[in-house]
Design goal:
The protein is α/β, with parallel strands linked by helices and about 100 residues long. The chain contains 4 helices and 3 strands, in the order ααβαββα. About 45% of the residues lie in helices and about 10% in strands. Helix 2 runs parallel beside helix 3.
């Protein structure tokens, strides 16, 4: 993963924001608006709630903003890209690991 320190060498500006948890949707919505108002060309978002963020994402699409879902999946709302874990594969790996540990005991 590239370091945020390399942003100036690449000619980009990166701002990292954190809403503060799954109960902070109003703050995430405000942060999204702040990013758009500041002229951001793209937003990577770990959505607290797809349903809660859907209207903002649709507005961003209409403005041609690049929007990429990271960590928490956005499945129904149209966005530019998704970088999310394959939760089924993670679950299988964890459950297989636990089963193997149980058998070895």
């Amino acid at each position: 993963m590239a370091s945020l320190k390399k942003q100036s060498a690449w000619g980009v500006k990166v701002t990292v924001l954190q809403a503060g948890g799954y109960d902070a949707l109003p703050k995430q919505l405000s942060q999204y608006d702040d990013c758009v108002a500041s002229g951001a060309q793209g937003i990577l978002v770990a959505a607290i709630s797809e349903a809660g963020l859907a209207a903002k994402l649709k507005e961003g699409n209409a403005k041609g903003l690049v929007q990429i879902a990271v960590a928490n999946p956005i499945l129904e709302t149209p966005i530019t890209a998704r970088i999310t874990p394959d939760t089924r594969r993670v679950f299988r790996r964890v459950s297989t690991s636990r089963s193997s540990s149980a058998i070895k005991r």
